[in-house]
Amino acid sequence: MLLLYSGSIPLLRRQYIVLVPSELYAGVPEKACVILNHLNETMTLNMTLEYGTQKRNLLTDVVTQRNSFYCSPFILPLSFALVTVEVKGPTQHFIKRKPMTITQAENIVFVQTDKPIYKPGQTVRFRIVSVDVNFHPVNETVSLITNPKKNRIFQWESLKLQGGLTQLSFPLSVEPILGHYKIIVTPQSGKRIEHSFEVKEYVLPKFEVQVKMPKIIGFLDEEFVVTACGSYTYGKPVPGLVTINICRKYLQYGSMCHNKYPQSICEEFSQQVYNKGCFTKVVKTKIFQLRQNRYDMNIQVEAKVREEGTGLELTGYGSSEITNNLSKLKFTKVKSHYRHGIPFLGQVLLVDEKEKPIPNKTVFVSVDAHAHQLSFTTNERGLADISIDTTSFTTSTISVTVTYKWNSYCFDSWWLEELHTPAQHVAAPVFSPSNSYVQLDLVGTVACGQTQEIRAHYILNGQILKDEKELTFYYLIKARGVISKSGIHVLSITQGNMTGVFSFSFRVEPDIAPTAHLVVYAVLPDGEIVADTEKLEIEDCFANKVHLSFLSAQSLPASDAHLKVTASPLSLCALRAVDQSVLLMKPETELSPRSVSFAFNSGLTRGSLKTTLEAASSTCKRRVRLVLYALTSCIFFSQSVGLSIFTNSKIHKPKFCSMPQPFPGIPGAYSAGKNVVYCRRKVMPCWVDLGRVHSSLFPFPSLSGGSELAVKVPDTITEWKANALCLSGSTGLGLSPIVSLNVFQPFFLELTLPYSVVRGEAFTLKATVFNYLSYCIRVKVHLGVSSAFLAVPTEKNEESHCVCGNKQKTLSWAVTPKSLGKVNFTATAEALHPQELCDNEVAEVPALGQKDTVVKTLIVEVCRYSESQDAGVTEKVSLKVPSNVVEGSARATCSVLGDILGSAMQNLENLLQIPYGCGEQNMVLFVPNIYVLNYLNETRQLTEKIKSKAISHLISGYQRQLNYKHSDGSYSTFGDQNGRSQGNTWLTAFVLKSFAQAQSHIFVEKLHIMNALAWLSRKQKENGCFQRSGSLLNNAIKGGVDDEVTLSAYITIALLEIPLPVTHTIVRNALFCLEMAWGPISEGQGNPVYTKALLAYAFALAGNQALRSELLRSLDRVAVKDEDSIHWQRPEIQLQEDKMLYYQPRAPSAEVEMTSYVLLAYLTVQPTPSSKDLSVASRIVKWIIKQQNPHGGFSSTQDTVVALQALSKYGAVTFTKNEKAAAVTIKSSKTFSEKFQVHDANRLLLQEVVLPEIPGNYSTTVSGAGCVYLQGNYYDLDYTSLRYNILPKKEGNVPFTLHVATVPKNCDGADAHRTFQIHVNISYTGKRPTSNMVIVDVKMVSGFIPVKTSVKKVSPESLQILTNKTLSFSFLVEQDIQIENLKPATVKAYDYYETDEFTIEEYSAPCSAGKV
What we know:
Elements: E1 2-4, E2 15-19, E3 24-26, E4 30-37, E5 43-51, E6 54-63, E7 68-74, E8 80-88, E9 93-104, E10 108-113, E11 117-118, E12 123-131, E13 141-148, E14 154-160, E15 165-171, E16 179-186, E17 193-199, E18 207-212, E19 216-218, E20 223-232, E21 240-248, E22 265-273, E23 278-284, E24 298-307, E25 313-323, E26 325-334, E27 337-338, E28 344-352, E29 362-367, E30 372-377, E31 383-388, E32 398-403, E33 419-421, E34 423-431, E35 437-440, E36 445-446, E37 451-459, H1 462-465, E38 470-479, E39 482-492, E40 499-507, E41 515-523, E42 529-538, E43 547-550, E44 554-555, E45 560-566, E46 571-579, H2 580-583, H3 593-602, E47 605-606, E48 631-632, H4 633-641, E49 646-647, H5 670-673, E50 678-679, E51 697-700, E52 706-712, E53 718-728, E54 732-735, E55 739-743, E56 747-752, E57 756-758, E58 762-771, E59 777-783, E60 789-793, E61 801-803, E62 808-817, E63 821-831, E64 837-838, E65 841-842, E66 851-861, E67 867-873, E68 877-879, E69 891-896, H6 902-906, H7 923-938, H8 944-961, H9 985-998, H10 1006-1018, H11 1044-1057, ...
Parallel strand pairs: 1-49, 3-9, 11-17, 19-25, 26-33, 27-34, 34-48, 36-42, 44-55, 57-66
Antiparallel strand pairs: 1-2, 2-4, 4-7, 5-6, 5-8, 8-9, 10-12, 12-15, 13-14, 13-16, 16-17, 18-20, 20-23, 21-22, 21-24, 24-25, 26-28, 28-31, 29-30, 29-32, 32-34, 35-37, 37-40, 38-39, 38-41, 41-42, 43-45, 45-52, 46-51, 46-53, 47-50, 53-54, 53-55, 56-58, 58-62, 58-82, 59-61, 59-63, 60-62, 63-66, ...
């Protein structure tokens, strides 16, 4: 505020005042308010801005009226500037200049996630909302990343918001790092903004157990009520047994005499509940000794609900605090300062120990330790308005204490004493030289859209006013950093009437929500300003009125529903809907107007006094009264509201003569003197979780402001919570209230059966009908007949069954599976028109949902101890099975593909039928997707479906691989294990090149690539070779050669495939190492075939054709050549052909890998491979694809990755489009015949048919043009796959010693039949000193499942490498479903890389005797 006076005309007659905010912001409309009083000539007012060499006029007015008051807008640029105010007339001229800093206004940015907690594998959906301080949308550009444990897993750069918001998503991997993740947003302001969500393993409860009890129990209470309820997520009660356990724990140990210790006090109650699902108990407090001091001051309650029919038991908890504080007083409204002569106002609330208001009670007010005593009475809401006469106050600050009852302060270590908490407040005075003041009444929460009346008390000095007949009071409302409203009130003045109350009013609009500051002030004739300010809390409201509703509040699962949305025309709206069971986990994260207001308020910065107060006069003033730490009215409201004062008059804090300070350091302000004032619009980045985001973001272009949406209701019985957020360019942000959609069906059917059984076992299939209506229904339950199983009802088979309101009925069948594989069970429950009464009630038929059908799948295994074998056969074939085949296990298929990578593309997530769980195994889920995408891009076959699938795998694999990253940038098989393991040189090189190649398809943080490269460079020796670091889990994966050259060749290949140029220092030195190593190898010192294969490919990548050719010639001399195929194998490995086998076993992993490297060497030549190279390559490809498994992978990780890379390169080199189709016909010697067509449009399609005759003779015929691919061989025709199970051989030497035991041995007690421990002892007894990585595959006995917590205790790294030393581990399993004729299960230990090395042992449930 600028207060300006003329110099030549008496001060009393000239008043020039300009008010501007003390903090100015660029690009936002500001306002300057002008007061010009007692003019006797025309004056010109100019307000200019000077920055740099530029000058800009902000405000110009010619004033002719004697008295005027108005506010004018202006906009500022971003700069440090001088603000100059000039008032000029014919005889008067005044100019005032002041430097001011103008800063950029920052916007409010929200991040919303659809859930606060995610499970592994789920998709995180979120939106970013950006609005200015007026809640209008801002289309700014943000950069966004997500960051778990400082690893970036996803990033969007320069993301432009549209309409003020955008919505994004990204998938979590199935094995993410658990814990808190961050979404980090960097808007244009550069401020870093974070929003957190949690990833953890959780299961949404089928129902929840709620405990209702008082939060507080008074220590004099004689009883309290506890209610325990079981309710499904859709609100219906759970019938069953409710047990409540209530305890008060003892805190201290007492005497140990007689070996007795104090015990906690507990009581237990139980009751069977039905329709209401709740058990309510009135608990007497006498037993819990609430007045004793040595017990915990809480009552703990544990409630268990066991669901009727299923026996499922869930637990809920509750607690009540015991308190001896029986009443509490607190100020709800109070003035921060007092003004001498005007009553000091406040309001207190009196509540009891349960926070309930206490009405009609007397409270006592004392000022400054009983110097003044007053009493007031609380109203029906427990509120008391206090008013204190300040006329006689002589102290610098006042301390106000409000008391209901006085405490005795008698301490007893054994017994609690009654306490009552008073309310206290310290206020400092406001200084006025003339003892003139104005004070606003306290204002509570203000209703939006209403007219608000404000009362103001005043006291004026008649000597200062002299002959004035009236005094003008001005008021301003400052909200969101700007002056939003202004007005005047003219007070008539008569002699002797210098005190009183006046009122004025204004309309409360959304533009001043959620908080505002009201300022009222007047300028006295001598230039003194009297003022007061009051903070207004406006109820939550937005100008954009958004309403969301479902046309029907209830819907059936999987049905169509309609949403109606209304908002301001041309709004952009975003919806979110979430299962209410998710909200049970973190209900405080719900999106609401209050949370938006909190975000706005938490971003406000403190206002500061921009005026440089002029020095006080050297003469001090004697302290008469009310002067210590006092503020003048003008300084007070400028500090409180954020308005500056610039003046040519002597407005300053008075300088007082020195005297002792009774309360040093206490400033005169609100609440213990602290003047904390929020002002301006600079909204710092502030974050509040605003609920869930539905996957829909849609424009709302309707000029009418209304729209309807059709949505598909999920097939789940629950209650959905939905709301909408809308943004409009004209009305800004709007939020709808939360609405519910109850997805409900009158009854539903649930089947209970095991996940899998073994042929010969039997189990009880249960079908339970749940009736969620309030009346009885009669239903008929039908289990579909199938040749795959035999089902016999366990009870008398009735035609229909009564199921009354909120009850259930369970039917059972004894089931014996007859066929193998997946068996479907289909059950139907249908409501019938009643023919008879149900429990003396007339059964009704529901209007909707009269039928419910459920299909569940059971896996029937051949047996727990068989091995599956695949046989690839081609052309004229005779499908035969061995004599030891498991009966009924043989099955054969014929499949046709038109592309060399077709089978791999169909199974990108399932290339290997082995466990995944380490840093190397994960790469087989990651890397093949790169080769598939590159191949399809190069051959122009990439479709959106394949692209989406492959990129999804890349994103997930990238996240998983970061689990194994070390802080130094390296990677190892199981991660750093809290610093216990080293980075692995080989795996780090593998990850480095894979991440670099994936960059063209997904986001990969460059820092990960740079750090890995830097780490590898530190492992490079002076001769250019790389030193080994970390453990290698596969003795054969490097061709059986664990030497420096082989490792260096692999790393060099990785660096060249990034690709780094051969001139790069690390690459150049590495190639020098390989060139020096080739000399001894070429001279015949040993026969390292694997090393030669790597060297050939490395020199091919480096463009060294001479060494490439030399190595390929050397490799050709040791190649294994058949009629139409070529491959390579380690010299010590001789594949034995077993004439008794009906199939050709696949080659070991290392043989596939080295052969693939040779293929890559043949194909890597500039400009293109020669016809001779392609001829050799074709023969290599024929051998490689014979080794493929039915899913398109190979034996293990590295052979699959390298082989698919080589095949994709070969496919791209040889790819041609065919104008004509190829026809493949397969016939049996009997009646079976099937024909396939393969052409360019379906060359990626897997076509498959089951062959019905086993054993049987088949023949295939191919006609037309093009290639079709055969698993096991590479022909211009189809492939046939024969699978069967055989009993594994146990004779001969086995590579592992395996012992399996189960506990308990004693079968007494019910728990022994439901749970048992599995103990495994294993050691390596093979030919090598140590094993490769070992997998121990423990099959579950039918009907049992592992206890996750016990499995997690088994250390995965303990099975990395085995020696002849026995390793032991154990875990717990528990019964899930009861099974009859229970069969044994197996534990299989096998080499991860050499899968033909295995050992199998059986175990049985220890307490099973046919029936568990």
